[in-house]
Predict the structure.
Amino acid sequence: MNGSEGGGPERVAPGAGAPGPRPGEPESFQEMWRGLAPLGLDRGSGGYRRYAWSGADAECREWFRAQAESRGLVHEVDRNGNQWAWHGDPRAGDAVVTGSHLDSVPDGGAFDGPLGVVSSFAALDELRRRGAEFARPFAVVNFGDEEGARFGLACVGSRLAAGQLTVEDAHRLRDGNGVPLPRAMEAAGYDPDAIGPDPERLARIGAFVELHVEQGRALDLSGDPVGVASAIWPHGRWRFDFRGEANHAGTTRLADRRDPMLPYAETVLAARREAELAGGLATFGKIAVEPNGVNAIPSLVRGWLDSRAADQGTLDAVVSGVERAAREHAERAGVDLDVVRESFTPVVDFQHALRDEIRRVLEKRGRGGADTGGRAVPVLGTGAGHDAGILSASVPTAMLFVRNPTGISHSPAEHAAEDDCVAGVRALADVLEGLACS
Ligand SMILES: [Zn+2]
């Protein structure tokens, strides 16, 4: 069935001459990868610009639909614009679902998101080659607007479905050009009045597994091609406003200045120190200065702290340490300080039963088809957010990570070796066979 049972009509037609496979002839992993490669690629930066509801996004969605149809899967778009490709009866319940997202950050890499979607279709092909018989319904999903590159909020498609983003708040989202989310959806041919919680759809999912390129170097350091996620770290953003006094850089004596740049600079160093001490992460990656003149002492320095840690206690220790240092240095410089928590996401602990089941399957069958020799599959925490983290509140959820040799992500340098991608597909097929097949 095309279109949506949930009311989100779909505009993109499978146009004549559209790229993609013919029905009944599924593409290989490499062919799928080559088909996606040019979509949304910026030739200047070498990175991807696949923003929600853009032309590049429509091309990626058309690619997904073609992949679904070539495998004889039932293609659906739900009320929030997420795409589903079903094998078996979507309404039967207790479905096993796998997938990720196809959108990107500005000038993002090729792997974050697409590796999970391509691997999901490839894993289904692998199961069919093995002659596996499905005992449960199965679906591949492409969640919409995961990166939040256009509207500033990540995981909009899964948040809406899970009821973690209200329709009112979603309707208030605007992109950098002031275009509201509803107008962007409408322009792409979707119905913004249809969006909202989708508990019935989520209730039909018995397990969701997301394969993702690792966004760190844990697997590279341990020498493993594939790992299993334990948890998504608690993380948040805090805004530090240092207010001093604007004045002339050439005529104001050093002793007379109330320069907010000084305590800000000390705070950046303190963040690094506190993170090292506690074993967490702390980053000032964005700053706004007023009046922002070369020859003016600033009146305001506003810095944003992003902090993450494996557990809440460590995160609290880092952030309170940074705030304490900021207050000391602000006082010494005669500068006022306000600290505001702008967002916070508590720890997401993936379901232990599903995680243990996945480890058992992988260790029994051997990762990537190779004998593990009884070696344990690594279990890793991650500091990055994912749709799997959003869904984990409503659905038993797990993640597989594929080694990224440099750990670089959200950049054209993001990479996974072909052998490791193949190992990821086999591991995902093993997991899906263990979960969905009798
Ligand atoms: Zn991702």
